[in-house]
Amino acid sequence: MTLIPKRERFPVTCAQEIVAVRQRVRDHATFLGFNRLDQTKLMTATSELARNMLDYAGGGTVFIEQVEAQGRRGLQITFEDQGPGIADLDLAMQDGYTSGNGLGHGLPGAKRLVNDFFISSRVDEGTQIVIVRWM
Amino acid sequence: MQRIPILKMGPFLLVTIQVDLHDRLVMALQDDLTNMVSKTGARGVLIDISSLDMVDSFIGRMLGGIAAVTRLMDAQTVVVGMQPAVAITMVELGLDLPGVLTALNVERGMELLRSRLGLVREMAHDIDTKA
Predict the structure, then answer these.
(1) More exposed terminus of chain A, fewer Cβ within 10 Å: N or C?
(2) Average pLDDT over residues A67-87
(3) Is B76 a domain residue?
(4) Is B56 within 8 Å of A51 when comparing Cβ atoms?
(5) A 12-41 residues with CB below 8 A of B?
(6) What are the φ and ψ backbone dihedral angles of B28, each rounded to 5 degrees?
(7) Which Pfam families match (chain B) (predicted)?
(8) The domain containing residue B76 runs over which residues?
(9) Residue A108 domain flag
(10) Does pLDDT of B45 surpass 60?
């Protein structure tokens, strides 16, 4: 595989770009040596969170980053938008809760697929979600 | 626009998804399948997703939609070939496919369709060889 940068940035403004981002996540995960299951989990979490961004905030930016901590390598993916923000994070993290036409699996589901999940959101300013899966 | 090919095989329609699914493609597939069921009078639809390396809630919802629509048109949809990693990930995500029949592979999917439709093996075999 050709060398890929440790950090990359992708705009998500349409559904096609979600496909491009999750394929790039697979490239990074393969490069780092993640097994098939972990690759699938990372791609699926990325797809859910990127779609949330598109559906609720009209789009945003995804950063894919190879990280290292305490001798472990991991893949960190950040989703940033300038959308309406999430008023009640606890509610949004509840399984089955949806404010739109989704199935309500997006946030809590994506959280289950990764090792670390951080979310911060301000009403009228936007939302940032960071996920990490470690090797 | 890119389209996913639909093959007719006796009383069944066969779809093998070989590309990464984006939204428009899945929605076009639903349209095309519905039209094909109507035109051919197909009794069953078999969708092979063995090449898909991921099923998110959007794709899951679309598969469920296809199954529901074809059922209203008196055709049964079976989704086959899900990769183990995809199945595990879907369960952790909290996603199941309500109303969607699944089978391990194309062969078992065909058997399932035939038994659901009450087609005897010989007859189905006959149709296969003629198709």
Answers:
(1) N
(2) 93
(3) yes
(4) yes
(5) 15-16, 18-19, 22-23, 26, 36-37, 39-41
(6) -65, -35
(7) STAS
(8) 6-130
(9) yes
(10) yes
Interface membership of A59 toward B (CB under 8 Å) = no
The stretch A30-48 carries a mean pLDDT of 96
**CATH for A34:** 3.30.565.10
Task: Report residue B49 as tokens.
Answer: 């997703």
Number of independent structural domains in chain A: 1
Structure tokens at A118: 């951080």
Domain membership of residue A98 (yes or no) is: yes
Pairing type for strands A7-12 and A60-69 reads: antiparallel
ipTM attached to this prediction: 0.88
Do the chains contact at B93 and A95, CB–CB below 8 Å? Answer: no
pLDDT of residue B128: 55
A110–chain B Cβ distance below 8 A for any pair:
yes
Shortest Cα distance, chain A CAs vs residue B91, angstroms: 9
What residues make up the domain containing A101? 7-134
d(CA A72, nearest CA chain B) in Å: 23
Least confident of A8-22, A68-82, B9-23: B9-23
Question: Contact, A51 vs B58, CB < 8 A?
Answer: yes
Q: Alpha-carbon distance B125 to A122, whole Å?
A: 62
Residue B38 lies in a domain: yes
Q: What is the CATH number of the domain that holds B78?
A: 3.30.750.24
Residues A91 and A116: their CA atoms lie apart, in Å, by 19
Average pLDDT over residues B38-58: 94
**Does the residue A79 lie in any domain?**
yes
Does residue B1 lie within any of the structural domains?
A: no
Into how many domains does chain B fold? Answer: 1
Q: Per the CB < 8 Å rule, is A39 touching B85?
A: yes
Q: What is the pLDDT of residue A103?
A: 45
**A2 belongs to a structural domain:** no
Is the pLDDT at A31 greater than 50, yes or no? yes
Report pLDDT for B8. 94
Taking residues B108-131, what's their average pLDDT?
71
Q: How many CB pairs under 8 A join A and B?
A: 70
The answer to whether the Cβ–Cβ distance between A113 and B93 falls below 8 Å is yes
SS3 B14: strand
Q: How far apart are alpha carbons B111 and B121 in whole angstroms?
A: 8
